[in-house]
Write a structure and sequence with these properties.
174 residues; mainly beta; eight-stranded parallel β-sheet
């Protein structure tokens, strides 16, 4: 094994194979296809990208994707989750089959699963949420709310909803 050290650009045509790579600074990959495979940082078929993403994941977690600063950072044993955005799903510890897209989406969810949170702050401060769909800024995101098995669509829809089976559609409905 040899080290490549240099200042400036490193240009390559063809394939570069390495068992580890650390890059300080910006990286520009243009043209072609980028493939990242493996089990990052542990578990089976997990993919994390961003500072703190999956920082607590264990070897039993599988098929999770987290992209963004602290995305999925509390996941330990959950499976089949997708977290995209700064702090998305950052409070989810053993959630499974969850989707959180947006800044702080589902950031405080614990003991939850089978939910979809799309939009900044969507389901941001809820717990024990199973089977809920929240779409829109802050939808279902009230502190302490437990909108289980609900449908919450719109800007801050379901902010005050508690209990299960709520349907809230529209600006600040419910």
């Amino acid at each position: 094994s040899q080290n490549i050290t240099g200042t400036g650009n490193i240009n390559n045509t063809g394939t570069v194979t390495t068992d580890g790579l650390t890059v300080a600074g910006n990286t520009d990959i243009s043209g072609g296809t980028v493939s990242i495979s493996g089990d990052f940082p542990t578990g089976t078929e997990n993919f994390g990208l961003g500072t703190g993403a999956f920082s607590n994941i264990t070897s039993t977690a599988s098929k999770n994707v987290a992209i963004g600063h602290d995305a999925g950072s509390s996941i330990t044993t959950g499976d089949n989750n997708t977290f995209l955005g700064h702090n998305a799903g950052s409070g989810a510890n053993d959630d499974s089959n969850a989707v959180a897209i947006g800044v702080n989406a589902a950031q405080s969810n614990t003991a939850s699963g089978y939910y979809v949170a799309i939009g900044s702050e969507a389901m941001g401060n809820t717990t024990n949420v199973f089977g809920t769909v929240a779409i829109g800024y802050g939808a279902g995101g009230a502190s302490g709310a437990n909108p289980g098995s609900g449908v919450l669509i719109g800007h801050q829809a379901g902010q005050n909803a508690s209990g299960a089976y709520n349907t809230c559609v529209g600006f600040r409905s419910g």
